[in-house]
UniProtKB/TrEMBL annotation:
Record Gene3D superfamilies: 3.40.50.2300, Homeodomain-like
InterPro entries: CheY-like_superfamily, Homeodomain-like_sf, HptR, HTH_AraC, HTH_AraC-typ_CS, Sig_transdc_resp-reg_receiver, Tscrpt_reg_AraC-type_HTH
Biological process according to GO: phosphorelay signal transduction system
Modified residues (4-aspartylphosphate): 55
Stretches of the chain forming a coiled coil according to its record: none
Name of the protein described by the UniProt record: DNA-binding response regulator
Entries under PROSITE patterns matching the protein: HTH_ARAC_FAMILY_1, HTH_ARAC_FAMILY_2, RESPONSE_REGULATORY
Annotated localization: Cytoplasm
GO molecular function per UniProt: DNA-binding transcription factor activity; sequence-specific DNA binding
UniProt entry keywords in alphabetical sequence: Cytoplasm, DNA-binding, Phosphoprotein, Transcription, Transcription regulation, Two-component regulatory system
Domain HTH araC/xylS-type: 167-266
GO-annotated cellular components: cytoplasm
Length: 268
């Protein structure tokens, strides 16, 4: 069910809209009927609707101002104007605000039902498509957990085959980043590809080279370990594969904007 809020200052029109249309049959739940813009905004704060059917000329905030407020708070709200004002300026502003429909008074329940039937069908299609996208993304996260944990999906590029190879490369780094001698050759061997190709592949899919990934995972682990005061900084340095504490300190500061000591102090 999609939630609908009506905003109409004329009591007779408001009650007619509420009672003359079988909203539930259309897949709509009528959550409220506000008598002015101010009252409608209160509904927006406590129970944002999916649909807004509003008059233009109302006290305490007109319909166009109301639509603008809804757009700012909940951009995907479908807004429909029901008005007796047939002026170009209102129509122009409605187009600017991306109003779904501009219905003229007097009320024609059949026309209103047709409009909302079409809008509900569009909403349903969009939600089904969104669910499909979310399901696909979840499957990808399940199949490529290392990529999913370390990089937003919007930043992934390349084919599924390439992503799988990159997933293997990141897994190899994750399993071996504590090794002080970990190199590009080790990662390439773990994936079964040449050094040049695996580095280019990882850069293509994630925007980062193998070396950047090694540093990234080491620094993330260092940050985690530093939150525990029982772990001394030289021990953290050693556990993530760094030999030189000065190099570790410089790299950590570059990554987080703080030295390891200052970072730790934030958690003590």
């Amino acid at each position: 069910m999609y939630k609908l809020l009506i905003a109409e200052d004329v009591k007779l029109v408001r009650e007619t809209l509420s009672r003359s249309i079988d909203w539930e049959r259309l897949g709509i739940e009528l959550v409220g009927a506000a008598k002015n813009g101010e009252e409608a905004l209160e509904w927006l704060k406590r129970d944002p609707p999916d649909l807004l059917l509003t008059d233009i000329g109302m006290p305490k905030g007109n319909g166009l101002e109301l639509i603008e407020a809804f757009r700012a708070s909940k951009p995907d709200t479908r807004c429909i104007i029901l008005s007796g004002l047939n002026e170009f300026e209102y129509a122009r502003q409605a187009i600017k605000l991306q109003v779904q429909e501009y219905i003229m008074k007097p009320i024609d329940p059949e026309e209103i039902e047709e409009v909302f039937t079409r809008i509900v069908a569009e909403l349903h299609k969009e939600r089904e498509e969104q669910r499909g996208v979310e399901l696909m993304e979840q499957r990808l996260r399940d199949r490529l957990p290392n990529l999913a944990q370390t990089l937003p999906m919007a930043e992934w590029t390349g084919s599924i085959k390439k992503k799988k190879l990159v997933e293997q490369a990141i897994q190899t780094i994750r399993e071996n980043y504590s090794r002080k001698d970990l190199s590009l050759w080790d990662v390439a061997s773990g994936v079964g590809l040449s050094e040049k190709y695996v580095n280019a592949l990882v850069k293509e899919v994630t925007g980062m080279t193998i070396n950047h990934w090694i540093v990234k995972l080491r620094m993330e682990e260092a940050a985690r370990l530093l939150k525990d005061p029982a772990n001394r900084i030289y021990e953290v340095c050693d556990r993530i594969g760094y030999v030189d504490q000065d190099h570790f300190r410089e790299t950590f500061k570059k990554q987080f904007g703080l030295t390891p000591t200052d970072y730790r102090n934030n958690y003590i």
